[in-house]
Design a protein that fits this description.
- The chain is of the alpha+beta class and about 270 residues long.
- It is built from three helices and 13 strands, in the order H-H-H-E-E-E-E-E-E-E-E-E-E-E-E-E.
- A hairpin with a 3-residue loop joins strand 7 and strand 8.
Length: about 270
């Protein structure tokens, strides 16, 4: 009997108990777990969206910066071209100033507020136009000296240079000179007369645009003839003492619309 009981006990097999801890935990805390997962997904989505927006903003900023750099570069190139044109015009004007014996134009001792980029183009256009007008004026208006020397007699009334008595009207200026040195035109024009003419002696008369005329008298030799086109600084004759003269000098006259005017008002620019 006892042996049979023992055998029955041996046959009894203990089955392992199933672990229900995890499902129980999930069932008890499913709300908290769900909220945590949703919160994590929200945070990840927000970070992803933020990084995407930052990347897009960075791209736009780079594109804007690139555009501004390109515009600035193009603007600088245009400015450089404008300044080259201005420098070229200024160089041409200074050549004409030198031919007249006048002081050159210089961009020195200049200052003032810095202009905005928008006004730089307008300023360069203004200065180009101004220099163009000045260059045109310098070509047709008799400015400067036809010969570098001392002015010994001015325009208007003076005493008789031979007798030193009485008064006579002097229609130009006298510039002391050395016989044989060149007398030069003070503006572009056409020779109206070149020859001997009474008290003028050998004289050259040049017509200019704007109804101006210049006369160069007491020359010892003529270098041009009637009808010749002359440019500012061209030699039209040589200093002398022909005609009514007390010694080597150049008598220089300016007429405007047929009326004789004071040349000294045209000596300085």
């Amino acid at each position: 009997m006892q042996l049979a009981k023992r055998r029955r006990k041996k046959k009894t097999i203990h089955q392992p108990k199933e672990n229900n801890t995890a499902p129980v935990f999930l069932l008890k805390n499913w709300k908290a777990i769900g909220i945590s997962v949703l919160s994590l997904l929200f945070v990840v989505s927000a970070v992803t969206f933020y990084l995407f927006r930052q990347t897009e903003n960075l791209k736009k900023a780079n594109q804007k910066l690139s555009y501004q750099e390109r515009v600035t570069s193009e603007g600088l190139q245009e400015m450089k071209k404008s300044f080259v044109v201005i420098d070229s015009a200024l160089h041409e004007i200074n050549q004409k100033m030198r031919k007249r014996g006048l002081e050159e134009l210089h961009a020195e001792h200049m200052g003032g507020p810095i202009e905005s980029e928008e006004s730089i183009g307008d300023l360069s256009a203004y200065y180009k136009n101004t220099l163009k007008v000045l260059d045109e004026k310098l070509s047709i208006v008799p400015v400067g000296m036809p010969y570098q020397g001392e002015i010994t007699s001015s325009f208007f009334y003076r005493s008789n240079p031979f007798t030193h008595r009485g008064r006579e009207f002097h229609s130009g200026i006298d510039i002391r000179g050395i016989t044989g040195e060149p007398a030069k035109t003070t503006a572009d024009g056409v020779v109206r007369y070149a020859g001997y003419k009474g008290s003028y002696g050998y004289v050259v008369m040049v017509e200019h645009e704007g109804k101006f005329e210049t006369r160069y008298a007491h020359l010892s030799k003529l270098k041009v003839k009637k009808g010749d086109k002359v440019n500012v600084g061209d030699t039209i004759g040589l200093i002398g003492s022909t005609g009514r003269s007390t010694g080597p000098h150049l008598h220089y006259e300016i007429l405007h619309k047929g009326k004789k005017i004071d040349p000294q008002t045209f000596i300085e620019l």
